[in-house]
Amino acid sequence: MIKLRTFLMIAFSLFIILLVTILSIIMGRHSSRQIEGEIGHSLSGIAFQMSDKLDHFMWARSGEIELVTTLDTLKQPERPEEIRHLLEQLRTSFPSFSWIGYLDDKGNVVASTDKILEGKNIAERPVFKEGIKGEFIGDVHEAVLLSKLLPNPSGEPLQFVDISTPVKGADGQPIGVLAAHLSWEWSKEVQRTILAPQLEHFRGLELFIVSKSDNTVLLGPEEMVGQPLPLVSVKQAQEGRNGWDLITWPDGKRYLTGYSYGNGYLDYEGLGWTVLVRQPEAVALAPLKDLKNYFIIAGAIATIFFAFLGSLLAERISRPIRGLTEAADQLRAGDDVNIPEYRTFHDIYSLSTSLRSLVDSLSKTESALGNMKTLAHSDQLTGLPNRVALEKYLEDTLPGMDPAKGKLAFMYIDLDGFKAVNDSLGHQSGDLLLQKVAQRLDSIRQPGGLAVRLGGDEFLFISPASPSIEEARTETERLANELIALLNQPFVIELQMVTIGCSIGAAFYPDHGAHPNQIIQAADDCLYLSKQAGKNRVTFAETPPE
């Protein structure tokens, strides 16, 4: 008969080898999808940041031009020197303007920076023809005439973005046009500010800006600028989506590609630029190779460790009946004891069976009590904490909070478009959608925070925040926008693509009330304001005066 010690060593070793192999396969596949998704979402986020900064920059510059048109100086075209002085000051304040000129209602350049084009008529150019009608922002283009007159140390073709707006007289009729050329170089500076911090974490990143009119590359690697980019990601972005894909590019290589669409900022409608951020597949998924090596090493160590542990356990279990009697005494005293069952050894079989039955009964009772407690604190549909869990969380958290060390941000979330999905696809699909929404909310929950389903399509998201109200608002706004962006990404519900949004109202404890119900009510009121303002946004409660 095989010795107990030898048997346990072999059994433990085979079990661990089998377990590690199965876990390696399962976790390897899961980790592959998870790592790919995390990096893809990160690239999509970088693309969104770039798109947002581009639109914000263009909105700011167009606003500056529009503001200048209201000055009395521009309503006196008979004083070109004063107008030129004003334009020079504007260019000095904002160096991204390569050229600014004031045109009369016939298209003649009355005054301009560095006197370039003064006395010339540019009535046939879009910057005048469109600008005399109203605010105009043109797409990136080469300005042949200005390229010859402006400094160009690099010798490369200069590219510009046109901005123009009418100057109106006292009767409200156009008396001229204020026109400006923005150097496209500013986009490269925005690119550097976006990519530089990311290069520490993501190797091989490349960023592209693609025009809407002909899908040509406006910004990217030098050899691709001006070339068409026929990618499905560009088409998806132009349909208003933000996301990522693992796709093959024209060079035949596969890249993890994040994309975002520039749909404007506030009253600026945007030029429809698509921003792409790509990373080579081999570089992006390199952590998977390290993970596989880790599993192999961990499996080998676990096998050795548990083989040794099996030897020790066998030595102890093979002691006479006195050992099991001592274990029974320990169990009666309330200690945590593992009672094994070995059918091979008749002398301890009867006693070990009785002890195992007792332990199993106690374990099932304890497990049942634990399951009842879990069910009482969880939402049955989504698995998120419910109102009971929320109250327990607040009872445990609020009494020990020090306002000088931090706040709690309460974000009341309501899904936009959920009823339409529920009505069109049915309640079963609606329930599946709520479950997936809950998974996404819980995926970005901060340590010490809580994601709660209040009922229907309403959720409460609580997150720790800085003690300063300004910093707390900045952090919470960033987190809220991340929530909105996350829920804006499409869901696949029963093989159908579903898109929803969300509106958020936010308030802070203890700034907006001494009791949790006051904070939640304030956040709910702000949610209503977000709905009124157009949905898919966050509104903050006003900070009470000191």
TrEMBL record:
Span of domain HAMP: 315-367
Record's keyword terms, sorted: Cell membrane, Membrane, Transmembrane, Transmembrane helix
Subcellular location as annotated: Cell membrane
Transmembrane segments: 7-27, 294-314
SUPFAM superfamilies, sorted: Nucleotide cyclase
Keyword Zinc-finger: no
Pfam families according to UniProt: GGDEF
Superkingdom of the source species: Bacteria
Alphabetical list of SMART domains matching this protein: GGDEF (SM00267)
InterPro entries linked to this entry: DGC-Regulatory_Protein, GGDEF_dom, HAMP_dom, Nucleotide_cyclase, Rev_trsase/Diguanyl_cyclase
GGDEF domain residues: 406-543
CDD domains assigned to the protein according to its UniProt record, in alphabetical order: GGDEF, HAMP, PDC1_DGC_like
Keyword check for Transmembrane helix: yes
Broad class of the protein's primary localization: membrane
NCBIfam families associated with the record: GGDEF (TIGR00254)
Protein name: Diguanylate cyclase
